[in-house]
Amino acid sequence: MHKLKYACLIIVTTFLMGIAFPVGKIGLSYAPPFLLMGMRFVLAGGLLALFCYKRKQPLGKMQWLQAAIIGLFQSAGVMGCAFFSMRWISASESAILTTSSPLFVIIMGTLIAGAVYRVRQWFGVAIGFVGVAIALGFHLGMQPGTFISLAGAVSFASATLFIKRWSPNFDLNVLAAYQMLTGGIALLLMSFVTEHPFFTVTVKSVAVVLWLAVMCSIVQFTLWFYLLHRGDPGKTSSFLFLVPLFGVFTSWLLLGERVEWYVGAGGLLIGIGIFLVNWEGNRLVVASTKKIAS
């Protein structure tokens, strides 16, 4: 993939992931979290499935099962853990922990899939995570929400590896559609079990759901699956460190939340971490790096 095209798609995708935080926060005034996210993904998955109905559909029970597993981890697992964790910790803390998933991608990829990463890449992930923590204020505590949010990060990492392994067998848009439908249905079931579902219909609430469904789900997931399919999951996932940074800035723009000086310092470390993970370096070569699912 052309490096400029790759960079542009990464920026667009992570920006859409980041802006979903303040837009979702606005939406929580009109619906509880599981219901809001369930509506988002069912609407997005349904629309994308209709758009892709003439494309190659999953073949056999195994491919349908794979799409469902990805949906349970990518949509239901990540968003369910992120929002449920906020009963104990702040949105910023949840964002910090959820975006630690690149570290889990490299750990799980090494242990499970036989991927080999340079020491420099491990160091880059660590620096990126510290940068995210600094950018969001470095306020972490060991509470139930901490472990729930970490479970969301592991879910995100698992979905990343599943997508990389199974996506060659799918039309990527079809896969994105069915995984969102699966995740959305699971979230709606969670809402009916754990919440008192309600949705207040206004122009703003409808606009929020449509933005989350179309831009932050259909566009975001199709781009993300494309990037994971075409590139190394560890390198691609390292850019998830940009998500909370975009979340902070868009929260400032949309919600008027104050942006502190440490956001800039954290952003600098995030950039350094991403550079270390992705820089090919002529002399920093390790013997036969194996890409996941290659």
TrEMBL record:
UniProt-annotated location(s): Endomembrane system
Domain EamA: start-end pairs: 5-135, 145-278
InterPro entries: AA-Vitamin_Transporters (IPR050638), EamA_dom (IPR000620), EmrE-like (IPR037185)
Membrane-spanning ranges: 7-28, 34-53, 65-89, 95-117, 122-140, 146-163, 175-194, 206-227, 239-255, 261-279
Keyword Transmembrane helix among UniProt keywords: yes
A GO CC annotation given for this chain: membrane
Protein family membership: Belongs to the EamA transporter family.
Keyword Membrane among UniProt keywords: yes
Key words, A-Z: Membrane, Transmembrane, Transmembrane helix
Membrane topology: Multi-pass membrane protein
A Pfam family the protein falls into: EamA
Domain of life from the UniProt record: Bacteria
Predominant localisation class: membrane
Protein name in UniProt: EamA/RhaT family transporter
